[in-house]
Amino acid sequence: IRRRLPRQRASGQCSTRVGAVVARRAVDLPVREASVGTTIAIPGAVVEEDARQKKADQYRLLLFNDPLNKREFVARCLMTVCLIKEGDAFQVMMKAHKDGVGIVGTYQFETAEAYCEGLKAKGLSVDIIPVDGDN
């Protein structure tokens, strides 16, 4: 069995031709080193930190008045998607119908987001907002 040896290039790199593709050894490839960032504290200087907004613990699911869908359909969607009892779903729907917006409930973020997406898929106008610590 004859073995093909790698050819030496003028640049000193070895490569083996396989058809029209040139294969290189991993040690021949350029390496990008990670940049090192050093923070130096200067006495008396004010340190500014990136304050990321904390995610709220609870979120309100809001239902907006919808002139396109019938009231019974809206109440039925609230019952099926959000698992609300019939009487509560009717009250939320009527609040949204009369006042323009009704609060479906207060939930954890994942639950509120899932209910919001489910109701939007049914064609309802809904949104979630974070609950302040004051309310």
TrEMBL record:
It comes from the Eukaryota. Residues 54-122 form the Adaptor protein ClpS core domain. SUPFAM superfamilies: ClpS-like. InterPro entries: ClpS, ClpS_core, Ribosomal_bL12_C/ClpS-like. One of its GO terms (biological process) is proteolysis. This is Adaptor protein ClpS core domain-containing protein.
